[in-house]
């Protein structure tokens, strides 16, 4: 087990910069999820940790030792590939024992390690099979098993579940989580699926364009996104964004939208009167107000999506689409007007230029990183 | 961490490798790594092909006759001047074009037809494929001898068949007729070369995704339209490269001619490659032979570059 | 549209034509080989009188027994086996590592090496004979099987490399990366994981090179002068000079010599197509 420190790591392919100075401290035993859209450099970073890509500049250390110039085989890490990369000409048992035999581990030890891991992953009946004769989910387990038997300092996962169907993915998600709890091994897990990130991570690292946008626990990231990118990427259905102008007076503040609609927000010491901002509110933080009990603004109902447990109501406000998530089953007619109210404590404001979130008065400045 | 107590079931933590074992050495060995892999091939090619090539080119400017102990001096461009007025060489140049494009046309069209036939599933396809590719494995001089034998009216069936077909009046050996002799080696070459095109084109055909045809037939394309809108465009790159490489290869390929006609009768089948052979090993004039070879090499290089330039111009025009 | 009967008819016509054309190709490919066989079993006295008959009135194995027992042919044959076998072996090793590098590494010198390999395919090889002789003679490699093996290997490496590269291109890079993480160096991963997976490709390359070396006449003729180091094509030519032109014996020797080349080729031709396809898919 070991911690991983990444300091100012950069990667360029010729003139193209793919990673622009990544800083990241991963604690011993932590489960870190790297999340971000396709092409943002997640795999590149992971492969730099593994030693499969050169580090253009900066340092990566595992357990306090800088490993920039070590061969992958000397880094004592294990990796699970998206394609699983099982050796086609070896049986499941051989696949799992390959690394151990290379380390000249005694035969009995190898056998017991394999038996142990196969038991945990339910692979006992498959040990003599070739990968070709396995289902996708079984192959995935073998790939996990191959990583686990080695007892490495750290596990690296590159979208290991993306080739599975939805149900299996969900099941494996919990299983990997349980395994981690049991082994307590430092893990770096790459995905572009924000649900995986939310459910699995101790801490999420949100990346975009080769830059770490924010590092934090899933709830920190969800509740206090550092910028518009993180706010829009995490959460499903996605956060609503409206453009307007900030106005504050005393301990009250509000946003005036393009059509003059005024939405109250928490005042932010970082914002100035007249500043162009983007307002962000998650669908579950907007309420439909039918009894006039709260101050509300008027919007137009476009579409109603019943989802069983909940209902998603699509409205337009100031000409922009807004989604509202509600557990009630509101009785609304399409095309009619509806009063909606923004939950002021949960509504964010972002500077339109820098796209950074402007913090309300009493929120401490932490988890922020750019 | 979020209060979760990790249970450590791991027994031995791997040895921590020593820190920074020379940043420089790994960088350098990373850059050098590919060269370790290619070095054996590189050494071999340089020693056995490139150096002899340069040596050979230098012979073109020297007087090198094996049986003449006084030869070996530099003669400048003398060989090339002789070459300009050597009617046998000029004839050989024309014959080379004949030989190359005559062979190539039939090898390619028949190879393409064969590949298309083999690309359909039918009973016995595996066996058929093995049999029709067999000529490629036959040593060329052996097939040369055999075809020469078959063209002979005394011991071969071909002249008699041609008479029955009405192509020929009386059975005679076309290899001894200066007007027709070239067709002998060409036929042998076609026989030998069809498998090459069939194999490469079949490979290319099999790499065309089947969904393309399905999509096209759903769009209402008939077989002919599918052939011209999918098959041909997909094969085009393979066709272009194999045709080019093969042209060069055939132009250099003298075995069949040397075995079947020795360039005769009356030099009517003498191609440049066989002419080089004659100069070098019959007359033992290696200087002159090298000069001819140099000219041939330059012509072939020019041809290759011309084809590449043409292709580039065409693809640019397309896009 | 067409009625079912109509389309069934069309299908019959299509497949009829298909099989007819296939049959034509098979006959064209095999007839010359058949003729070779026919001449080799025809007794000498009726070779010319029955020259154009499809099958002689009498057949004999005399030509074969002569070739096997009275001539140097078995010796030539052995030389050819040694030369072609070693050439195929060494070419495959060299082409495998080079093809692997072409498939997996991006490096500066690559384009130069590829260009060099392509240009070597344009040489009129005849022109290289004298210079190669010049280079090999002082090393004692003329008139020796070793010299032939070296020359053949060099000539076959370029094409074999491109062939092997296309096989490697079909194997995902993840596999050796997994092996490298599991504890292999890159070269070990190549040897233990990638090579076993390219066995069909290696078979194809082996067969291809073996056949090419087996047929080579020019260099065998020019670099070797003694009987003891002659390969079978040279030996076959010696039938012409030594015994007058004894075609029956020569064809018998030819048929015998065809056997290994054809056997090898029959085994590997399928992989040849597969290998080229694997490469083509990758682009
Ligand atoms: N060999 C290379 N040469 C040049 N650019 C490369 C190379 N490999 C990757 N890139 C670029 O680096 C960027 C990051 O790639 P990377 O594979 O890390 O993305 P990713 O975040 O893993 O995306 P995905 O979710 O699609 O896997 C991409 O824009 C890609 O185009
Ligand atoms: Mg990726």
UniProtKB/TrEMBL annotation, chain A:
Coiled-coil region: none
Pfam family, one: ABC_tran
SUPFAM superfamilies linked: MOP-like, P-loop containing nucleoside triphosphate hydrolases
GO terms classed as biological process: carbohydrate transport
Top-rank taxon, per record: Bacteria
Keyword set, alphabetical order: ATP-binding, Nucleotide-binding, Transport
Domain ABC transporter: 4-234
GO CC entries: ATP-binding cassette (ABC) transporter complex, substrate-binding subunit-containing
Keyword field contains NAD: no
Protein family (similarity comment): Belongs to the ABC transporter superfamily.
The protein's name in its UniProt record: Glycerol-3-phosphate ABC transporter ATP-binding protein
Species this protein is from: Thalassospira profundimaris
Lineage of the organism: Bacteria, Pseudomonadati, Pseudomonadota, Alphaproteobacteria, Rhodospirillales
Automatic annotation (TrEMBL), chain C:
Chief site of localization: membrane
Highest taxon of source: Bacteria
GO terms for cellular component: plasma membrane
Topology within the bilayer: Multi-pass membrane protein
InterPro entries to which the protein is assigned, alphabetical: BP-dep_ABC_trans_perm, MetI-like, MetI-like_sf
Keywords annotated in UniProt: Cell membrane, Membrane, Transmembrane, Transmembrane helix, Transport
Compartment list: Cell membrane
Residues of the ABC transmembrane type-1 domain: 77-268
Signal peptide: none
Transmembrane segments: 12-37, 76-102, 111-133, 145-168, 189-211, 252-273
The keyword Transmembrane helix appears for this protein: yes
Pfam families assigned: BPD_transp_1
Any one of the GO BP annotations: transmembrane transport
PANTHER family for this protein: INNER MEMBRANE ABC TRANSPORTER PERMEASE PROTEIN YCJP, MALTOSE TRANSPORT SYSTEM PERMEASE-RELATED
Family as reported in the entry's similarity comment: Belongs to the binding-protein-dependent transport system permease family.
This protein's name: ABC transporter permease
Source organism per UniProt: Thalassospira profundimaris
């Amino acid at each position: 087990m070991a911690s991983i420190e990444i300091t100012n790591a950069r990667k360029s392919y010729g003139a193209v910069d793919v990673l622009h100075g990544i800083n990241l401290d991963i604690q011993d035993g932590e489960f870190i999820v790297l999340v971000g859209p396709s092409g943002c450099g997640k795999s590149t970073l992971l492969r730099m940790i593994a030693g499969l890509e050169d580090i253009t500049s900066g340092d990566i250390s595992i357990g306090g030792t800088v490993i920039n110039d070590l061969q992958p085989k000397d880094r004592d890490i294990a990796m699970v590939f998206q394609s699983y990369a099982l050796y086609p000409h070896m049986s499941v048992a051989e696949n799992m024992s390959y690394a151990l035999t290379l380390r000249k581990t005694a035969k009995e030890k190898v056998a017991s390690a394999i038996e142990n891991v196969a038991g945990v992953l339910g692979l006992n009946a498959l040990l003599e099979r070739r990968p070709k004769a396995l289902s996708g989910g079984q192959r995935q387990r073998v790939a996990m098993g191959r990583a686990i038997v080695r007892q490495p300092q750290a596990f690296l996962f590159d979208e290991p579940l993306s080739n599975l169907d939805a149900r299996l993915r969900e099941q494996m998600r919990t299983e990997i989580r349980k395994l981690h709890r049991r082994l307590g091994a430092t893990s770096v897990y790459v995905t572009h699926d924000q649900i995986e990130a939310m459910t699995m991570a101790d801490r999420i690292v949100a990346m975009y364009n080769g830059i770490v946008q924010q590092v934090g626990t899933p709830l920190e990231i969800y509740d206090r996104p550092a910028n518009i990118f993180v706010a829009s990427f995490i959460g499903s259905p996605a956060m609503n964004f409206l453009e307007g102008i900030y106005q504050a007076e005393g301990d009250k503040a509000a946003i005036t939208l393009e059509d003059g609609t005024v939405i109250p927000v928490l005042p932010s010491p970082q914002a100035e009167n007249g500043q162009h901002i983007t307002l962000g509110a998650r669908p579950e933080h907007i309420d439909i107000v039918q009894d006039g009990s709260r101050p509300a603004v008027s919007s137009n109902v476009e579409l109603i999506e019943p989802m069983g447990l909940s209902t998603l109501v699509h409205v337009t406000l100031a000409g922009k689409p807004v989604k509202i998530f509600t557990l009630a089953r509101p009785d609304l007619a399409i095309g009619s007007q509806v009063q909606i109210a923004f939950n002021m404590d949960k509504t964010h404001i972002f500077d339109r230029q820098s796209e950074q979130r402007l913090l309300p008065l009493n929120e401490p400045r932490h988890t922020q990183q750019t | 961490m979020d209060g979760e107590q990790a249970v450590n079931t791991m027994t031995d933590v791997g040895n921590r490798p020593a820190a920074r074992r020379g940043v420089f050495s790994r960088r350098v060995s990373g850059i050098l790594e590919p060269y370790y892999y290619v070095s054996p091939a590189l050494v071999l090619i340089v020693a056995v092909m490139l150096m002899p090539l340069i040596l050979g080119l230098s012979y073109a400017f020297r007087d090198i006759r094996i049986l003449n102990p006084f030869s070996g001096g530099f003669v400048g461009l003398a060989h090339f001047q002789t070459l300009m007025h050597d009617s046998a060489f000029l004839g050989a140049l024309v014959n080379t074009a004949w030989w190359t494009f005559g062979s190539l046309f039939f090898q390619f069209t028949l190879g393409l037809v064969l590949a298309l036939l083999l690309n359909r599933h039918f009973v016995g396809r595996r066996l058929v494929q093995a049999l029709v590719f067999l000529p490629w494995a036959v040593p060329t001089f052996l097939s040369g001898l055999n075809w020469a034998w078959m063209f002979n009216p005394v011991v071969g069936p071909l002249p008699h068949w041609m008479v029955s077909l009405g192509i020929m009046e009386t059975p005679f050996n076309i290899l001894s007729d200066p007007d027709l002799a070239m067709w002998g080696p060409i036929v042998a070459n076609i026989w030998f070369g069809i498998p090459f095109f069939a194999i490469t084109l079949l490979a290319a055909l099999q790499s065309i995704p089947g969904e393309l045809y399905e999509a096209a037939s759903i769009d209402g394309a008939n077989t002919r339209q599918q052939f011209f809108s999918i098959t041909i465009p997909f094969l085009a790159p393979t066709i272009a490269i194999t045709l080019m490489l093969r042209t060069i290869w055939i132009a250099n390929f003298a075995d069949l001619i040397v075995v079947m006609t020795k360039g005769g009768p009356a030099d009517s089948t003498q191609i440049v490659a066989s002419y080089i052979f004659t100069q070098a090993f019959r007359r033992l004039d290696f200087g002159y032979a090298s000069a001819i070879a140099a000219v041939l090499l330059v012509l072939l290089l020019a041809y290759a570059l011309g084809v590449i330039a043409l292709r580039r111009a065409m693809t640019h025009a397309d896009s | 549209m067409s009625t079912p009967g109509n389309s069934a008819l069309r299908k019959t016509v299509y497949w009829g034509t298909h099989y007819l054309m296939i049959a034509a190709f098979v006959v064209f490919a095999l007839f010359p080989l058949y003729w070779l066989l026919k001449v080799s079993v025809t007794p000498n006295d009726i070779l010319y009188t029955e020259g154009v008959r499809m099958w002689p009135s009498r057949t004999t194995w005399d030509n074969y027994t002569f070739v096997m027992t009275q001539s140097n042919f078995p010796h030539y044959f052995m030389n050819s086996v040694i030369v072609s076998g070693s050439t195929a072996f060494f070419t495959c090793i060299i082409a495998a590592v080079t093809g692997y590098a072409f498939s997996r590494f991006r490096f500066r010198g690559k384009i130069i090496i590829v260009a060099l390999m392509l240009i070597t395919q344009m040489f009129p090889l005849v022109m290289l004979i004298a210079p190669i002789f010049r280079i090999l003679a002082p090393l004692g490699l003329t008139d020796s099987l070793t010299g032939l093996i070296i020359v053949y290997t060099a000539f076959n490496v370029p094409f074999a490399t491109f062939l092997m590269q296309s096989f490697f291109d079909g194997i995902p890079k993840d596999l050796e990366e997994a092996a490298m993480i599991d504890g292999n160096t890159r070269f070990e991963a190549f040897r233990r994981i990638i090579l076993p997976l390219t066995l069909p490709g290696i078979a194809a390359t082996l067969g291809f090179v073996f056949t090419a070396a087996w047929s080579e006449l020019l260099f065998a003729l020019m670099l070797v002068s003694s009987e003891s180091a002659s390969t079978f094509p040279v030996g076959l030519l010696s039938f012409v000079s030594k015994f007058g032109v004894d075609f029956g014996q020569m064809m018998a020797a030819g048929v015998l010599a065809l056997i290994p080349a054809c056997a090898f080729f029959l085994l590997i031709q399928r992989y040849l197509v597969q290998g080229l396809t694997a490469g083509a898919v990758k682009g």
